[in-house]
Amino acid sequence: MTASDPRPIGEDDLHAFVDGRLDPGRRAGVEAWLAAHPEAAARVAADREVRDRLRARLAPVAEEPIPARLRIANLATPHRMRISRWWTNVAAAALLLALGGASGWVGRGSMPGPGAPTEPMTQAAVSAFRTYVVEAAHPVEVRADGSSDLVQWLTARLARPVTVPDLQAQGFRLMGGRLLPAGDGLAAMLMYDDDRGTRLTLYSRAGPSGGRGVFRYARADDVAAFSWIDSGMSYVVTARTDEARLLRVAQAVDAQVSGQRDGAR
Amino acid sequence: MDDLAVLIEPQIPALRRYATALLRQREAADDLVQDTLERAIRAWPQRREGDLRAWLFAILRNRYLEGVRRRRGIEVGVEALDTITDAGTDPEAALGARDVLDGIAALPEEQRSVLLLVAVEDMSYAEVAAVLAVPVGTVMSRLSRARGRMRAFLDLAPTIVTGHLRRVK
Question: Keyword Transmembrane on this protein (chain A) (predicted)?
Fold first, then answer.
């Protein structure tokens, strides 16, 4: 291949350039083209950086020795029909917010998103967040000093077993919780914080019955919220943080509450 | 069985890496890999000739998606994902560099997998197309979107407009 490949440079050439998949002739052509197109060159450089950072971040995993339990010889033992277990470990960290109380909330139509919270439950959760997250002295009613008292208290008040999501993997520690009036029933609000003092709340209550829903995103000024419904419960996580981080929290909570509930059957 | 170990085990480090990127939890990732390997062992007699790596990665991804569907029943709404990438200034981000895995986690799964398989696993575009069972053109458009979102997430480039570039066959 000579350096005089007549075909114009395309976006797929740029991807292949980033990924090192061009033959030398074509690569020279792309390099020459990039020299004359600084904006595209900046994009290519950025894509390279993303690629390098991803590889560096994940490289240690592949360099570890293979765990014994993943050796083929150890797996090929007779038909131990095991149900897929990976999600149960996701859920194993603990928790369940099976909150009691009759459901006063009927699911509305889907919230237009993204935008200001228009769905009543999200509004209630964001209001509660704004009210209590600024509290220095009494952000929570019951502190999580070992969290068993908190769990017992919530369980007693809600007349249902309650455990609490572990969000350590997301960088949040449990501060405690409080109960809030919500229609005919009660809502539970758990509060977490991280090392930087960012506070996060998980608001949950019964209703609507059945069904599952997508995560809904809402933002009101500097406060972001994800809400969803699952198996008769509604959840809202709220924080002043970026959406990607909050979404990870929502996914972690969801994995834990749904896993725990299924596991508890 | 020895054949099987000789062929499959060299792929295990990469399978663990992909599973870790999908799940972000090491223990859960190894459970997913174990599930994948068990499935592969059972399906081995029915396996057709072809790219072994693509076959294994496809099993892992399908097990992952199946687990997500069955256990959680919740998918991230499109609107949420769009918002994440358009979030603009982020007060928290000013305090330190963002974790590139957070950016990956915020992508729709189909874009996340394409970017991981291309950029981290060094698969050819055709191989990625085989894993995802989609045409190569779809792989390229997902790759393009994934990279645009990652640039925005990591604030690496002010624009992701590429309209002036011509696409070629």
Answer: yes
Portion 72-111 of B in contact with A at CB < 8 A:
72-77, 79-80, 82-84, 87, 90-93, 95, 98-106
Whether B100 and B167 map to the same domain: the answer is yes
User: Would the CB atoms of B77 and A113 count as touching at under 8 Å?
Assistant: yes
Please tell me whether residues B138 and B84 are part of one structural domain. Answer: yes
Q: Which of A18, A58, A167 to mutate to test the interface with B (most CBs of B within 10 A)?
A: A58
Is residue B41 located within the same domain as residue B15?
Answer: yes
Domain boundary among the residues B53, B75, B97 is at B75
ipTM over 0.85: no
pLDDT of residue B122: 95
| A25-69 confidence digits (pLDDT tens) | 999 999 999 999 999 999 999 999 999 999 999 999 999 999 888
Q: Where are the alpha helices (DSSP H) in chain B?
A: 2-8, 12-23, 26-43, 52-67, 78-85, 100-105, 109-115, 125-132, 136-153
B150 touches chain A (CB under 8 A): yes
Residue B64 CA, chain-centre distance (Å), reads 11
- Residue numbers in B near A64 (CB within 8 A): 13, 16
User: Do B3 and B55 belong to one domain?
Assistant: yes
Give the predicted TM-score (pTM) of the model.
Answer: 0.53
Longest dimension (CA), chain A: 78
How far CA B78 is from CA of B83, B108, B116, B160, in Å, comes to 9, 8, 20, 19
Using the beta-carbon criterion (under 8 Å), do A47 and B147 form an inter-chain contact?
Answer: yes
